[in-house]
Amino acid sequence: MLKPKILVTGAGGQLGSELIPALREKVGNNNVVASDLKELDNNQGPTELLDILDNNKIETVIDKYQINEIYHLAAILSAEGEKNPVRTWNINMDGLLNIFEISRKKGIQKIFYPSSIAVFGNQTEKINTPQNPVLIPETVYGISKESGENWANYYYQKYNLDIRSLRYPGLIGYQSLPGGGTTDYAVEIFHKAIGQQKYTCFLNRDTRLPMMYMDDAIRATLELMDAPKENIKVRTSYNLSGMSFTPEEIYLEIKKYIPEFEIEYKPDFRESIARSWVESIDDSKAREDWGWKEVFNLSQMTQVMLENLR
Length: 310
Ligand code: NAD
Ligand code: SER
Known about the structure:
Strand content: 15-25%
Largest sheet: 7 strands, parallel
Order of helices and strands: EHEEHEHHEHEEHEEHEEHEHHH
CATH class of the largest domain: Alpha Beta
Strand order of the largest sheet: 3-2-1-4-5-6-10
Mean pLDDT: 97
Bound molecules: nicotinamide-adenine-dinucleotide, serine
Radius of gyration: 19 Å
CATH topology of the largest domain: Rossmann fold
Helix content: 40-55%
Oligomer: single chain
């Protein structure tokens, strides 16, 4: 195995901002190239402006740094994606196929591809959703992630390309802001609780969704990527579970620390996206195959979020 030389696409987003420092701590600052469509500041290692639709530039960057692992984060998320479905499809799918095809040609050793609970749809079992349920997603983002999972499996089966993937729940952290998803409310609510002590939620009070604290998500990613290849039995994408809660439940948890905090509910188009997803996830395959176990529940996460944001 070569020493990892990692390229991260979409590194300036909510996940990348926290994954980059974790990867750099693990393999060294200069061995992780952070890339994005937008300029990245305050970086401790190499950065590149990189549009994932630009094949030539992807190849140039891979050659320049002798990249042998890719974390392909760049994508348009669920709510933002509905504003321009065809563009979302192009970025999410053409970008992914660029990465897979170039990786195959250049012999990239390992690829991480984040999928999402957005692959689930109205016909999916909502409670304790199994690993292989009916997948008929309602958003273009979900369609692209579901197709991406099948492409990942295809490239593994046909070319033995070692692509590993997680169906992340909504991610919540204090170091970065979310980028246009349906689960964004669960980050915004903390900022508003501390700032204005008032929040207008775009989902209904009782819409339950699977969520995960960012530290757990980063650790899951690193553990999945470190696992021996033969342990990775799911080559579409692993179900992954942290916690599940409704807007009212997280509001009441925050209110324990900020008693004057108020919430009102004004559901918009994101409510029907959220309703098409599921409430809780069965991630027993991840637990069996590579030993996944979450650490953070709602109350632990709330405490850490408030401590750090203050
Ligand atoms: P984000 O929207 O915060 O960041 C995405 C990044 O991709 C942005 O910095 C953006 O500039 C970049 N980007 C967009 N178009 C690009 C292009 N053409 N070329 C290069 N870069 C481009 O998203 P995130 O929350 O950091 O999510 C990262 C990945 O994780 C995505 O694939 C997303 O689907 C997945 N995911 C995230 C969550 C979550 O809750 N944040 C949940 C499930 C899955
Ligand atoms: N958190 C993401 C979204 O809401 C799920 O992938 O779009």
